[in-house]
Each structure stands twice: as structure tokens, then as C-alpha cells.
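Lecture notes, unit on protein representations.

Consider one protein chain, 388 amino acids long.
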Amino acid sequence: MSDYTPKPENKFTFGLWTVGNIGRDPFGGPVRDAKSPADLVRLLGEVGAYGVNFHDNDLIPIDATPSERDAILKDFKKALADTGVVVPMATTNLFSEAIFKDGAFTSNDSKVRAYALQKTMNAIDLGVELGAKIYVFWGGREGTESDATKDPISAIKRSREAMNFLCEYALDKKYDLKFALEAKPNEPRGDIYNSTTGHMLAFINTLDHPEMVGVNPEVAHEHMAGLNFVHGVAQAMESGKLFHIDLNDQAFGRYDQDFRFGAVNLKSAFFLVKLLEDNKYDASRHFDAHAYRTEDYEGVKDFARGCMRTYLILKEKAAQWNADKEIQSIVAEINASDGSMDQYFGKYSTAKANALKAQAFDRNAIAGRGLKYERLDQLTNEVLLGVR
């Protein structure tokens, strides 16, 4: 049996809010006692994680005094040093406090928008102090329940203005930092702006510094909308914008479940891991998920180990799929070309267009070819089921 022990080069990370989730939900209170950020770092060190990420207020409570802030930071930094766990990413909580009940950067209230910028600048400073190279933006309250309440074009412009301002702030401070935008279709708002990874990719192209900004797609957020997450990640990768990724699992069409990676849609998880590994994705593999409400902290450790172990098992399965002679024979066959059409592809020319218009195609013969997709998909299942 292979060794599925996580190693630093796997770059597996968890947020303080993931292993620190105390099991509260809309219908019930906590089932686990809260742990300090330093204790959560030690838990992650114990299970073999590479890194820990945080919202500003996961680490420093919003009303902490300067002395309390210094004490928390001291303990946190010591835990990082003791365990070797690093901080690759940070973010800002712009959704929990009542002031953000109608959004942060898109709020109709200019005081809220200004406070959101202030809070984010301070949080960026904190993240950079602790080593973060990626800064994530999730607009959890940036949306509406009724379109009577907010003009969507104004909201887009306010979002752009905020991102341009914060890019300039990072440049002015000479921070070695990139931003990653995280999309979600709904929850906690009825409709959230820039609701999918594709929306975010389009939005980035309108910014003053698009080179600084990429995306942080999340499995659950795309599955909530019934979308194919692998396709969204592929689009982000192909455009050079996959700066970070949130791994978890989710039943299609449900509320945001944040299940352990691979817990629901194993084949989708397989093709996601294969996509990342085949294309040599080298940034953090962040598990934005949490343990079932049934668990104590030993169960939380089982959850964290399970996320990493499943990823490594699927990585091994992807290598097996790539090396399987029958699978690769089918892949080669369905992508085979006799070269006769090569003259028509690539850069456009008038001569090429005229030649292509004159080309005769035997539609029936082409359509009559079986593609062996049933066999290929079954072989994939057999790899995953461990019988090949």
C-alpha cells in the first residue's frame, strides 16, 4: 500500500475557521469548545498540514485591545515556529458584523464602504506580517434579496473601485502579494454579485491591475449552482488566473455543506485532482471544509487527515489512469488525426478560409464512428473502485 502521509510539498492548508469550526448551525448551538488560534495551529501540525490561513478576526477578535492583540500574535507566532506550519493566505471577514448586513464594498452606505476598505487594509498588513503571499476576497454579503434595493451597475463599479484601491495600496506598501477573488452564487445573500468563477474572470479584466488579481474557486460554491467545477478550474488555469483553490465537497443544489474533500462526488474530485496534478498546479491546496457536527476534536483530526489522504489517493489514481494502457489507447484513438485537416487550423488567412469552404465532408461516415466513451468512463470507475 502506498504512503499517503502528507508532506510539505503537497502544500495542504486549512483555515482557522475550518478546524476551528465549533459545530454551530442555524438550528443548533456549538458542539465543540472553541480553541485558540495557537492551539489550532498545533492541531494542524499534529495532522501534518503545511499551512494555516485565516480571516483577520479568526486570529484577532474585532474588539481586542492592543495588549490582547499582541498576546494573541505572540502565541500564534510561537505555535507557527514550534510546528513549522506556515501562513500562505489571509483574508478579511466582511460578512459577520452587523455593519455589513447589506454588503461591504457594494453597500449603498458610503461609511460602510470606507470602513470595509479600512478593515481590509489593516487585515492585509496583518497577513503580510505573518507571511501571506495570497490575499483572498469572498464577498459573502455583496448582493441582494431584492433588486429594488441596489443598482447592479453601481455595485459592479463600487467593487471595481475597491479592488483598484486595494491593489494600489499593496503596490504602495511594496507587498509581495496577489489577490484571489472567490465566487459564490447565493447564501448568505439571496443573490451574490460575481456569482461564479466565470463572472470573476470577466470582472478581473476590467481592473487597473489585472495581473495582480486571480481567482480562488471553491468546489461547494460551484456545485451549489449545479456547475461543473472541473471546467471552471480549467478555465481559470488556462487563463493563468488560478492563484488559490478551496477544496471541499457538496451535494448539488444543497446549502453550503463544506463537507470533507471527496465525501460526496468522488469522480468529480478525481478529475479535479487529475487536472491540478497533470497541469503541475503549484500553489496551496486549501481545504475550506469542516468536520461533521457529530465530532469531537479527535473527529476534527480525522476530518483533516481524511481531506489530505483522499487527495493523495486520488493523485495516485490519476497517475494510474495516465499509465493504464487500455485507457491511453482509447484516449489516443479518440484524439487521433490523419493530418488531413491540419492545413485549416491555426492563424486565419483568406486562402485557408477559401480552401476550407471548398472541402468536402462525409457527414455520415464521420458521425458513424463510435467513440468508446462508455468503455472509457467504465474503466475510470474501475480505477477508482480499485479493480484495475
